[in-house]
Specification:
seven-stranded parallel beta sheet; 255 residues; alpha/beta; globular
């Protein structure tokens, strides 16, 4: 389905990452991928995983630095000659801001969460758009969560960041649509990942969703990968400015 297509994924941390599940789904269907990592701590993990996919490119990138984001897209353009898909799976907040009351969020904590988790999508879109235009269009996919539209215990400033991310998806879709570039989000249910460990009471959230969701189970990480495959493929050619829930239906429940 994606034979000959070119993509880049920001946010793979390890083999349990949602971003890695997406990478596997895209690669199985023929897409050649580039990956980024931040810092030496994650470099080995990303390089090891990328090595299992033929033709992969691995690049360093701190998404809070415009020069590094620019260098990533310059390298991708040089190696790939264009781009068809971008996956934004980047989010961060200070641990102390994911525990207790949102009202106690520091100014710096707020700024950092919004910069890394939300503005980075805008920065990436700026770099990706010219490369996608070369290919006649493309698909940008960002990962969100229900905490961006409803209050989830201990999600706090990350929920505010996801709300900004989801609105950014809509504005970017409007701006980039004339170039044939679609921008969508996936709001996945709670999944055990490295990032999830930073949320206090996460196991309680998992148990609650499994009991209350219409499908009476938690989200399978491969379901998120398959949804990203749909959004990256021609099957979703008429879909943009949307956030698709992949959460066993939990988002519809009132209690």
């Amino acid at each position: 389905m994606l034979q000959g297509k070119l993509g880049i994924i920001f946010g793979v941390a390890n083999h349990r990452s949602i971003a890695w599940a997406i990478a596997q789904a895209l690669a199985r269907n023929g897409m050649r991928l580039a990956f980024t990592y931040q810092g030496e701590r994650l470099k080995e993990n990303v390089e090891t995983l990328a090595a299992t996919l033929q033709g992969s490119l691995v690049l360093p990138c701190d998404v809070t630095r415009d020069d590094e984001v620019r260098q990533v897209f310059e390298a991708v353009d040089k190696e790939f000659g264009g781009l068809d898909c971008l996956v934004h799976a980047v989010a961060f907040a200070k641990k102390e801001d994911l525990d207790g009351e949102f009202v106690k969020t520091s100014r710096e904590g707020f700024r950092l969460a919004l910069d890394v988790s939300s503005y980075s999508l805008v920065a990436m879109a700026q770099g990706a758009a010219p490369l996608m235009a070369k290919r006649g269009g493309g698909s940008i996919i960002a990962l969100s969560y229900l905490g961006g539209v409803r209050v989830v215990p201990n999600y706090n400033v990350m929920g505010v960041a996801k709300a900004a991310l989801e609105m950014s998806i809509r504005y970017l879709a409007s701006d980039l649509g004339p170039q044939g570039i679609r921008v969508n989000g996936i709001s996945a249910g709670p999944i055990k990942t490295l990032a999830a460990k930073g949320i206090s009471g996460f196991s309680t959230i998992l148990d609650h969703v499994a009991q209350k969701a219409p499908l009476r189970r938690n989200t399978d990480i491969e379901e998120v990968g398959d949804t990203a495959l749909f959004l990256a493929s021609p099957l979703s050619r008429g879909v943009t400015a949307n956030v698709i829930y992949v959460d066993s239906g939990y988002q519809v429940m009132g209690m």
